[in-house]
Write a structure and sequence with these properties.
This protein is of the alpha/beta class. It has 20 helices and 21 strands. α5 packs across α6, α8 packs parallel to α9 and α17 runs antiparallel to α18. It starts with 22 loop residues before the first helix and ends in a 7-residue tail after the last helix.
């Protein structure tokens, strides 16, 4: 008889329920984020040692790490003045001797005795005598558990102070022997013709028969992680759809037609397709939850404006939230220019500017509320809210998104990002949203050419900028700092210098420590071509749309992330003229040089996003807390796209409610 499904698995019991785990061991395991028996069995090895095959000590090199085995023939601790020390053992395996040293770790002498047989892993730090500094090491002990540690492929785990490798390996072996039969298949489970059982995968990940078993096991356990995440997302979506009825916001085109006629340009095929999908959502049975992706300058704002018009035509108000005051103010200006002729009110709500009253509940006019985090404030009410639009979604946390949506009665939601999201992240982070992509740029945009130049070429670059502004164009000069740190240039330190370089043309200064009114005055002058060169920090990453600006100089670009550099570059190339982005860098770091090379070779934001993911990893790319990104033990968002797709399909097949894109 099978156990009832609601019975709590013994794997959920704390590790303190296992023999040999007292308070001290429990504290050590807790530092490794091991609280339950399940956590212990899913503690992933850092690497594996094939202890069926060793290198002779005489075969060890300085170029590649290797595992050797020998007997301690000498050992000792030397102390020096100032409290420094070195503990050393000398191993002999018959082919040569190996000196192993640990600097300033005197307690290491407690782990070894003369005559002990020892495994060591590492690479030589010097040849004469053969020496390893701080190698991984493990004493070989005879006894009934010896077969766990030698003559096999042995797992090597992440450790913490006071927790020996040998003890943890034996502990996992004994726990697995006792609880392996309690490891059950999750629901939905993958096809076992292509994957091992979950229990078999857990055994293989710790004690593989052959090296390829380790990847087979990792992939199965990674798939389980992705299935769990997709199940949570799909069930959240189902609960939402069961409880939320959509507000009818499909519109009737009475405002849309005059708006499109007054635009002065035709929407691209891409924009039109996305608007068709959006209109279907706004007239559907469930509130829209849609992610709109589009590269810098692809025309997302116009799509957002059309979506807002549909809601307003249907008698509802709209809220548009941006992460910075600069971007919120730009949206305010655009929407005011577009919508006031149609009789639509535009209100701005930021930390420093409030055109809206705290309570607009009695105003019958259709209104768009544009703002920053100020839209969240408790005192600010958003009446009759039909649609929420969030720009630059990656700058906000999931909780903030929900906070704004809760201001209405299940309003429709459109979240937009100009930082293209790699497909793996899109399916894991935004799996509960339907995805729309603007994949074609508007016609008539000038090409952007990007160049990486060394610092000694700066005078020539400045002369090139001067030539361009002499023909009537404008330029950005970007520095990573507000004030000089001695290592990289800063806007305040360079301002006077650039004023002299570009005289008689005007140079403006913009950075985050300026007052809101000062920033707005500088940007207004730049937009009006009263300032020809704008010297700024990354503050202009979003929010400035000046089609006459065709040159951008970025100094110390290695201080910025790849996606951020792409966003900055997106400030130029917004008009019909050819544009130039010049990155001045003497970076020696290979990763920094690789990032700059990618920017030089492509302007495709999606390719750049994939490259950024590979270079920096998802945690650093997005920030784990901000993004709501789960912590995977086995899944890899860079390489496991096929598993993420399989997980999505498994869950969709199980719930019989396929949505979104795969």
């Amino acid at each position: 008889m099978s156990p009832p499904e609601n019975r709590i698995s013994p794997l959920k019991n704390p590790v303190t329920s296992l023999w040999g785990v007292g308070a001290e061991r429990a504290a050590q395991l807790a530092r490794l984020e091991i609280a339950s028996i399940e956590d212990l069995l899913l503690h992933r090895p850092r690497r594996y040692e094939d202890r069926r095959h060793f290198k002779k000590i005489s075969e060890l090199t300085r170029t590649a790490p290797g595992t050797a085995r020998g007997t301690i023939v000498a050992l000792g601790l030397n102390r020096f003045r100032g409290g420094k020390s070195v503990f050393e053992i000398v191993l002999d395996d018959g082919s040569a001797r190996l000196h192993c040293r640990w600097w300033n770790l005197p307690f290491m002498q407690n782990y070894f005795s003369n005559g002990d047989e020892v495994f060591v892993f590492g690479r030589l730090s010097q040849i004469k005598p053969r020496t390893m500094d701080h190698p991984e090491s493990e004493v070989i002990e005879s006894g009934e558990e010896g077969f766990i540690h030698i003559n096999r492929i042995a797992p090597v785990y992440p450790l913490t102070e006071g927790l020996p490798q040998r003890w943890l390996r034996g502990f996992i072996w004994r726990t697995l022997e006792k609880f392996e039969t309690q490891i059950v298949e999750p629901k939905p489970a993958p096809d076992l013709k292509f994957f091992p059982t979950r229990a078999n995968a857990v055994r293989m990940v710790h004690f593989p028969g052959e090296m390829p078993d380790t990847d087979t096991a990792r992939r199965r356990l990674a798939l389980d992680e992705f299935v769990e995440l997709q199940s949570q997302m799909q069930s959240r979506r189902k609960r939402f759809e069961a409880s939320a009825r959509a507000l009818p916001c499909g519109g009737d085109n009475r405002m849309m037609k005059p708006f499109l006629a007054a635009l002065g340009f035709k929407l691209t095929e891409s924009q039109t397709r996305v608007l068709r999908e959006t209109r279907a959502d706004l007239g559907g049975a469930h509130p829209m939850r849609r992610l709109l992706q589009g590269d810098v300058g692809s025309g997302k704002t116009v799509v957002a404006a059309c979506t807002a018009l549909m809601a307003i035509e249907s008698g509802f108000n709209v809220a548009l939230m941006a992460p910075t005051e600069i971007l919120a103010e730009q949206h305010f200006r655009n929407f005011k220019k577009w919508f006031e002729p149609l009789g639509i009110k535009i209100e701005l709500q930021t930390g420093s500017t409030k055109t809206a009253l705290g309570n607009a509940a009695h105003d019958p006019s259709p209104t768009i509320f544009v703002g920053t985090h100020a839209l969240f404030t408790e005192g600010f009410r958003l009446p009759n809210l039909g649609l929420v639009i969030i720009d630059e979604q990656h700058k906000f946390g999931v909780a903030q998104r929900e906070q704004l949506v809760r201001k209405g009665n299940y309003p429709h939601l459109l979240v937009m990002t100009a930082t293209p999201i790699p497909r793996t992240l899109g399916l894991t982070l935004y799996g509960d949203l339907d995805v729309a992509v603007i994949d074609k740029m508007p016609l008539g945009r000038g090409k952007i050419k990007t160049f990486v130049r060394a610092t000694d070429k700066l005078p020539k670059v400045l002369e090139f900028i001067r030539e361009k502004i002499s023909t009537g164009r404008q330029a950005y000069v970007i520095y990573p700092r507000v004030e000089d740190t001695g290592e990289v240039k800063a806007v305040t330190a360079e301002f006077e210098n650039l004023r002299k370089v570009f005289a008689p043309f005007r140079v403006g200064l913009l950075h985050g420590r300026m007052k809101g009114t000062e920033k707005e005055a500088v940007m207004a002058e730049f937009r009006g071509n009263k300032i020809q060169v704008l010297l700024s920090t990354s503050l202009v990453e979003v929010g400035l749309d000046v089609s006459n600006a065709t040159v951008m100089l970025i100094e110390s670009p290695e201080q910025f992330g790849l996606a951020q550099l792409h966003q900055l570059r997106g400030r130029i190339g917004r008009g019909a003229h050819e544009s130039h982005c010049i990155l001045i860098s003497d970076a020696k770091n290979p990763e920094a040089r690789e990032r700059l090379k990618i920017l030089e070779e492509t302007t495709d934001g999606f390719k750049i996003a994939e490259a950024d993911l590979k270079l920096r990893g998802p945690g650093e790319l997005l920030g784990r807390e901000q993004s709501g990104l789960p912590k995977f033990r086995f899944g890899d968002l860079i390489t496991d796209m096929d598993l993420i797709r399989q997980a999505r399909q498994l869950v969709q097949a199980a719930t019989e409610s396929p949505r979104g894109q795969t």
